[in-house]
Amino acid sequence: MLGLSTLPDVFVLICLGLLGAAFLGRYMAKVFTARPTLLDPVMRPVESAIFRLMGVDPSHQMKWREYAVSLLVMNLCAVVFVFLLLSLQGSLPMNYWGVHGMPWDLALHTSVSFDTNTDFQHYTPETQASLFSAIFGLILLMFLSAATGIAAGVAMIRGFLRKDSTIGNFYQDLTQAVTRVLLPISILGALLFVLAGVPQTLAQSVSVVPLAGPAQGIPLGPVAAWDAIEFLGTNGGGFYAANAASPLQNPSALTNLVAIFLMLLIPFSAPFMFARMVRKEGEGRPLFVATLTIFLLALFLFLYFESYNPFLASTGVSQGSGYLVGAEQRFTLPESALFQVTSIFTNTGATSMSLGALTPGTQIDLLWGMFVQAAPGGDGTGFGMILINTLLAIFVGGLMVGRTPEYLGKKIGKYEMRWSTVVILSHPFAILIPTAITFIFGLAQFSPAGVASHQFTVVLYEFTSESANNGSAMGSLIDNTLFFNVTGAIVMTVGRYLPLLAMLAIGGSLASQGTAPPGPGTIKTDSATFTLFLILFITIVTGMLFLPMLVMGPFAQGPLGGG
Length: 563
Known about the structure:
- The chain has helices at 7-32, 40-54, 64-87, 104-115, 125-128, 131-158, 170-195, 223-232, 253-277, 281-306, 310-313, 333-345, 360-372, 381-401, 414-440, 452-467, 482-511, 528-552; strands spanning 62-63, 166-168, 205-208, 216-219, 406-407, 410-411.
- It is built from 18 helices and six strands.
- It is mainly α.
């Protein structure tokens, strides 16, 4: 269980995921630049019917404000629809377990959570959500939220290509993100999960007779289809409360590897798509290398900190060559580590182990991924964050060496810096303010209680996860309360839509400029030097913003772990 015999398998899977991402990135560049693809004959009639049904003209090109309004209105309508669905599910069909409608605060948190690609679950899926709500509400939002992030990322990239202030058509980008990317891959992913033993049925339960005791009902449903879009769309909300630790949702090492592959696919495809869209292959390399370097470092640190636990060792319990508490016996340490690092650093938020049982060093490792949000981050939004960090790095680097802050022929001015700074600073504020309110007014209850530093870490993780639109949790915090539901909904909304608006505003500003050829003062952004500078810039800025929080939480718990 704890040996590193599967470590080569893990790195082979990472390589396969990156190869798939490279292929997908080139394909997505064709989709969003209207170049021919193999799916055109099948999807064009479908998309035309969707546009006619929606009453939109896909050829109409939008400026950033119109694009943003369309995005916000579409998602607001989706939130209201699912909020009503969850509130009224007790009176709706396909309610085989007889669940009641959710209280308004829980329905608000859940609908906002799935709409913002967070999928933070303050409810128990098996007992508090009907099959009707899952299929016609929550799965719908998982597709919509992922497609919205992809659309915003594509729109920002178009800012480097255009000179007429337009960044595309939101409805066309949203539709094609679903029909050309998410839906085809989700169907293939669901088939793989079914073949690997994951249930796929419209029955919500099956009755079994155990060796001892009366018959029991086991919750079922379209778990394979749910899994596919959960992982591919960097959603993360589980069909079961145990999420990917459930043997029904993630029964074997094979399904675990498929889930990891799907989580890696779209976030790591973004640099390849970017390079093809801007027609400069070398410009995608620093972004890809920076995100991959941070990701691999996080994986190494996870393995290191979990290889030896001083708290467990002090009790005289032998760990063998790793740390067992909170992990699933059917997965090795490398497999669990790769799943969890991939899930957190892609802002998926699915869990296959108990995060509260991790060593403090590992908790820091995972929190760092949510602080950065760009290594590689969620579908579309993660790449938007790495672009924002790149613009900031170029601006700061230009000031340091007295060179012109330009990127791909576009000048980086105060407008772009204003939006970029707001996004970078809003993240710690969205975490710190509710965390401080929680402890000042004593609003947190824990089961079990735990020590003060661990309690702080749990609450810090809760709001970090919601602000980063991650959705994972450390447990022990009783968070299905009026305060945590309403506050969490606000934090998730800010954490989602402020970066999306910034991406669109920056893209629109860049699209209003002409393209200038590189001059003698232009920073060479496709070099190894800039790649290293970008990695250090992200690390240093993140450290300055979030290190005090870590000192009060994980660092205060004691030894970090590791041999």
